[in-house]
Amino acid sequence: xxxxxxxxATSSPSPVxxxxxxxxxxxxxxxxxxxIYGISAVHTGxxxxxxxxxxxxxRPSTSALEAGLALCQHPDHHHQALWSRQDxxxxxxxxxxxxxxxxxxxGLWADLLSALQQGSPAISVSAEEMxxxxxxxxxxxxxxxxxDRGCSFQVKPLRGAAGSRxxxxxxxxxxxxxxxxxx
Length: 183
Description:
Largest sheet: 3 strands, antiparallel
Mean pLDDT: 78
Distance between the termini: 36 Å
Low-confidence stretches: 1-22, 160-165, 167-183
Number of domains: 2
Helix content: 25-40%
Shape: elongated
Structural class: mainly alpha
Number of strands: 5
C-alpha cells in the first residue's frame, strides 16, 4: 500500500477548474483507490457516483472539485482525475467498504482471540491479556467477527481518556480455577 503521493500524481498538482487542494492528501487514480478496498476501478467509480462525487460521464462532480476531493489535471480527460484517499474514504466506507488491510487484521485478531479462548496447555497468555494490545479502532469489527464465528469472547473498549487499551469481557472459561501467568 502506498504511503505518500501516488506515482501517477505530481508532487504539486495544479488542478484545472477546482479549488486548490489541502496540503498533504494522497492523490490516487480510481484503480489505486479501489485497490485499497479490493474492488475494481469501475466499481470505485460507481460508488463515487452514488456518493455524488463523480458524474455519469466519469468526471469529478463540481462539489468534489470544490471540496478538494478530486483533481482534474486535464479537463478533457476524466481518466486522469485523481482522488484524495483521505477525503474519499469516508464516502466509500459509508457505503459498506472496508480497507483490505483492516479486514485482514480483523481476521487475524479474531482467529487469535478465538484460539486463545479455547485454551491450550502450550499457550501461556490469555485472550484477555492479548486483547489488551488490540488497536482501539479494531475492537468493534473484531467483536463482530468473533460473534460471526460463534465465539463468545468479546473485547470491551474502555470509555473516556483513562486508557488507550480495550478492556475484556471474557466468556466463563472451563478452566477458570487453573493457574495463570501474571504480569
